[in-house]
């Protein structure tokens, strides 16, 4: 039951991140979607068809790992403040993701443009809200007594 709840929460969370990326891209006129950035970065290493598959696989795997991390932290150190803990964990994950993207885009195999500061701020916001969404979904599917 726990594994299915984590998988369901990770799918919903990853869909949320993808929709948010595309929505922000439409509002700003820039295409800084994480999946697009991954695929474009992988184009120099592997074929374009494989880069799309690998980019999406990495994106979905990352969503599962983030959800698993949030579940483990909520289960291990839960104090009953599930949404607040999820928000704090999401903020930490967003900060780590910002550092990752800053280094990833600067690597030799990466794409040839700079990410705007807005994208890096959006990463922190999106992962903070992802932490809340995943925490709520996990508490709904597993019950609050399981996570506290």
Attribute tags:
6 helices, mainly alpha, 148 residues
Assign the structural class, choosing from mainly alpha, mainly beta, alpha/beta, alpha+beta, or little secondary structure. Answer: mainly alpha
Question: Total strand count, please?
Answer: 0
Largest sheet: none
Structural domain tally: 1
- Which whole number gives the mean pLDDT? 82
The percentage of residues in β strands lies in: under 5%
Instruction: Give the end-to-end Cα distance, rounded to a whole number of Å.
Output: 17 Å
Radius of gyration: 16 Å
Topology pattern, helix = H, strand = E? HHHHHH
Low-confidence blocks of residues: none
Approximately how much helix is present in the residues?
Answer: over 70%
* Tally of helical segments: 6
**Quaternary structure:** single chain
Shape: globular
Topology:
Layout: H1 2-28, H2 34-42, H3 48-77, H4 82-105, H5 117-142, H6 144-147
Helix pairs in contact: 1-3, 1-5, 2-3, 3-4, 3-5, 4-5
Structure overview:
The protein has one domain (2-33, 61-147). With 148 residues, the chain is an all-alpha fold. The chain contains six helices and no strands. Helix 1 (2-28) packs across helix 3 (48-77), helix 3 runs antiparallel to helix 4 and helix 4 (82-105) runs antiparallel to helix 5 (117-142). 81% of the residues lie in helices and 0% in strands.
